[in-house]
Amino acid sequence: MPCKLAAGNWKMNGLRADLEELRALIAAQPEPDCGVLICPPATLLAPMAAIADGSRLLLGGQDCHTGQSGAHTGDISAAMLADAGARHVILGHSERRADHGESSDLVAAKARAAHDAGLTAIICVGETEAERDAGRTLDVVLGQLRDSTPKAATAANTVIAYEPVWAIGTGRTPTLAQIAEVHDALRAAVPDAEISLLYGGSVKPGNAADIFALANVDGALVGGASLKAADFSAIIAALDAA
Ligand SMILES: O=C[C@H](O)COP(=O)(O)O
Q1: Ligand 1 site-directed mutation target among 202, 226, 231, most atoms within 8 Å of CB
Q2: Is the ipTM of this complex over 0.90?
Q3: Which of 65, 88, 93, 183 is catalytic?
Q4: Catalytic residue list contains 93
Q5: Residue 62 has what DSSP assignment?
């Protein structure tokens, strides 16, 4: 059975003052049944690792380079993330595909680097609104899955996150039937049937339970609602109850 995971992506948000939210989250959810992961900006990984020491909270990065070291100014490697306390890394988020022109081939190379460093790669896929309107959702999502996922991916080293681009940060979510259609197709296509499938895109305390009730949704990749301990804690509780 795939592992349940509530993953928070802080994106380019968070200063040291915001570490209080992490302390509050650990206090609110000391013994979650599901995996709980926070992916902060790289600047907060080490202080978060110190706070999370002895708790069940997992930490992750938001991107990594394809190499483990070298002359790549401004980049960060999977080995560095692991050294700072990360167990996971988000790869191929639509914001990186759009802002940095990342291709699925590059995402696959980054995923191999993550695996080599012992990290679990959270590989993101998702269609734009124009692609959905053109009836291309499954073609786009399954194509990204095929091209972004290393052949050696297993449930032990890979998680897939379905994030419709038009639902990210907009307050709009697909219908439950639309989420189910994509997740059912992903389940049939992943190289290991035990790989966890996360939904992401405007997940909030108010809609989490309905999304988590879907058969092939094993958790969520949460942006805005992961920044506040109270909201993310409610989403974790909904996943534990599903
Ligand atoms: O990585 C998280 C997703 O992009 C979702 O962000 P959101 O929950 O703010 O819509």
Answers
A1: 202
A2: yes
A3: 93
A4: yes
A5: S
Q: What is the DSSP letter of 69?
A: S
Alpha carbon nearest to ligand 1 atom 6, residue: 223
CA 10 to chain centre: 11
Residue 222 alpha carbon to ligand 1 centre in Å: 5
Q: Which of 79, 74, 73 is nearest to 61 (CA)?
A: 79
- Alpha helix positions (H), 173-212: 176-189, 208-212
Between the CA of residue 102 and those of 92, 109, 110, 117, 176, what are the distances in Å? 7, 11, 10, 21, 29
Ligand 1 pocket: which residues have CB below 6 Å?
Answer: 9, 93, 163, 168-169, 200-203, 221-225
Instruction: Please report the sign of the dihedral spanned by the C-alpha atoms of residue 223, residue 89, residue 178, residue 102.
Output: positive
Cβ pair 93, 73 in contact under 8 A: no
Active site (annotated) includes residue 65: no
d(CA 119, CA 6): 17
- Domain 5-241: which CATH class? alpha beta
Q: Give the whole-angstrom CA distance, residue 88 versus residue 83.
A: 12
8 A C-beta contact, residue 232 and residue 23: no
The angle at the Cα of 59, spanning 100 to 118, to the nearest 5 degrees, equals 80
Residues whose CB falls within 8 Å of the CB of residue 28, separated by 6 or more in sequence, listed in order = 229, 230, 233
pLDDT single digits (tens) 124-155:
999 999 999 999 999 999 999 999 999 989 99
Does the model's pTM come out above 0.95?
A: yes
